[in-house]
Design brief:
This protein is an alpha+beta fold. The chain folds into two domains: 162 residues, Thiol Ester Dehydrase, Chain A (Roll); 117 residues, OB fold (Dihydrolipoamide Acetyltransferase, E2P), CATH 2.40.50. The chain has five helices and 13 strands. β10 and β11 form a beta hairpin.
């Protein structure tokens, strides 16, 4: 199967490939590179902070998968069912993967010196499904670990499920709008972080509680230098305004209204007044905040009638 063929690969074709892999049954046993051993048990339990006194006389059951992992240089066998199904879905355009759930069952504890082997088969392949990550297929495999001189004693089982999904097309990068950009300082960064989060923040003195805007490093009421902030309701009234006709302003089409709004909290704040004919603006007009997302770096506060 080739990347070119992926464009025409239907859901029915994917199910047919899944059935073909499923019909092969279990793959050949993959023998662990190393036997169950004390150093690995000690490393595992130390990393997890597991002080069970039975270890390392026996191995933690949840380690079972670790004994037969491929390693950094490992390559999946041709008959590995998960690898085969991943290839099918990669070729169909479902190129991303995330594990969704894992269920393990243990028959007994393992002891140092045992060498394991694992065999896997393909289970359900369900899709296409719409998910938050994108359209995808849920792929389930069933694995059984064996021990014993003949490698025929089942000691653990695992159901493992992944989601192979087609990532959505990345959103196009929007060019930055040509608008006058504020200078962000240590005193004002909280304000611009607030507008980005959809909050209108007002500086408050950490000593006397006085509110002020624009923000500054020192409280004009008591001289303290412990600024905090509160989140405003965003409601107020037009205290004063101008209708701007000239000169041209980047990102604005004249005429537009710039309003000084007195907020319910008592401070006054400037911003463009939108969604209103300039001739209809008046002092005392009730307004509320609106946030103008310019780009990923800047969101400006503005006003609209309420």
């Amino acid at each position: 199967m080739t990347a070119e063929a992926s464009v025409d690969m239907t859901a029915e074709a994917i199910r047919s490939e899944a059935q073909r892999i499923r019909d092969r049954g279990e793959g050949e046993p993959r023998v662990a590179r190393d036997p169950v051993n004390v150093p690995m048990i000690n490393n595992w339990t130390e990393a997890l902070g597991d002080s069970n006194p039975r270890y390392p006389e026996v191995a933690p059951p949840a380690m079972v998968q670790a004994w037969t992992m491929y390693g950094l240089q490992g390559v999946r066998a041709a008959d590995d069912p998960l690898g085969a199904m991943i290839t099918v879905l990669d070729d169909a355009g479902y190129t991303s993967i995330v594990a969704t759930d894992c269920e393990q069952t243990y028959q007994r504890y393992l002891r140092p010196g045992e060498r394991l082997a694992v065999r896997s088969r393909l289970g359900d392949v369900v899709g296409p499904k719409r998910t938050a990550l994108g359209e995808g297929w849920f792929v389930t495999t069933h694995s059984t670990w064996y021990s014993g001189d003949e490698g025929d004693e089942p000691v653990a089982e695992m159901l493992f499920r992944v989601l192979k999904f087609r990532p959505p097309e990345p959103a196009p990068i929007q060019p930055k709008r040509d608008v006058p950009r504020p200078a962000v300082s240590r005193d004002t960064e909280y304000f611009w972080a607030g507008t980005a989060a959809g909050e209108l923040r007002i500086q408050r003195c950490g000593e006397c509680g006085a509110l002020r805007h624009p923000p500054g490093p020192m409280c004009p009421a008591c001289g303290a230098t412990r600024p905090e902030h509160v989140v405003a309701t965003g409601r107020g009234e037009v205290y004063s305004y101008v209708v701007h006709h000239h000169p041209p302003v980047p990102g604005r089409t004249p005429p537009f209204v710039v309003a000084l709004v007195e907020l319910e909290e008592g401070v006054r704040m400037l911003g463009e007044l939108r969604d209103v004919d300039p001739s209809g603006v008046r002092v005392g007009l009730p307004v509320e905040v609106a946030f103008d997302r310019v780009d990923d770096e800047l969101t400006l506060p503005a006003w609209r009638p309420r």
